[in-house]
Amino acid sequence: MAAGLRLHLCPRLRAFAAASRPLFATSHSGAIPLPLRRAGPAMPLAARARRGLSSSTAAAPPAEDDDFATAADLRFEPPLQVVKYPDPILRARNKRVNTFDTNLRTLADEMFDVMYKTDGMGLSAPQVGVNVQLMVFNPAGVKGEGEEIVLVNPVVYKSAKRLLPFEEGCLSFPGIYANVMRPESVKIEAQDITGAKIKVKLSGLPARVFQHEFDHLLGILFFDRMTTDVLESVREELKNLEKKYEETTGLTSPETVDNYKGTKDVFSFSR
């Protein structure tokens, strides 16, 4: 479960998904967000964060600032393909988004389609070759079930001190699964697909899916979070992906697990 969190990771993950409370509780009157502070219209967060929500308002065109994505940065050609390790796209800087238009909504829709087709729970834009701060996820992992959430320019401003291990897999690392320690909950700020600002606390499976995808937006890969012992258990599989990249592209692998320098601090949400 991770970059493009995989749904079929293991039976334990399926049980976790089935037992997890919904990201946003619901009632007969509609979606009710978990406790949060909200900026912008008083529309329920669950609705505003879902894919495909149209809006008559869009943010102003990007400022002339290298921190923000240009139209060229947001250009993509369907069908999207999942980028595999060790492609350098996965380590590239991902720019912030400040244009919320039809193109962005279409990109999010295409990402959901790829996610479901590859049995994922989440997917980040760099995993499909678009280096911008955008992620989509649905902890149910099944189209038509659960809630489809789109987060743009997310920031973690608080994380729980309690850490939990859980077996993760990643669409960018086919066939590789291993335990990763992460905070059990996080408080985040982000924008939805319309550009509206939101704040929310995530816990349980949604928190883990989010953290995995958020790492992707920082250029952090899930094996960066593994302990040395856990990494050793998947070292050969990572080296096989590096070899496959070289055979497929004719290029030298841009990185190798042999140069791994230690576990990334699980409390650090920076590169």
What does this entry show, briefly?
The chain is of the alpha+beta class and 271 residues long.
Summarize the structure in words.
Its cofactor is Fe(2+). It is found in: Plastid, Chloroplast. This protein is an alpha+beta fold and 271 residues long. The chain is globular. The chain contains 5 helices and 9 strands. The model is unreliable at 7-48 and 52-63 (pLDDT under 50).
**For the largest beta sheet, what order do the strands appear in spatially?**
3-4-5-8-9
Number of helices: 5
How many strand segments? 9
Structural class: alpha+beta
Bin the helical content: 10-25%
Distance between the termini: 20 Å
Largest pleated sheet: 5 strands, antiparallel
Shape: globular
Weakly predicted, low-confidence segments:
7-48, 52-63
Strand proportion, as a percent range, falls in: 15-25%
Arithmetic mean pLDDT: 81
Main features:
single chain, 271 residues, alpha+beta, 24% helix, EC 3.5.1.88, Peptide deformylase, Peptide_deformylase_sf, hydrolase, transit peptide
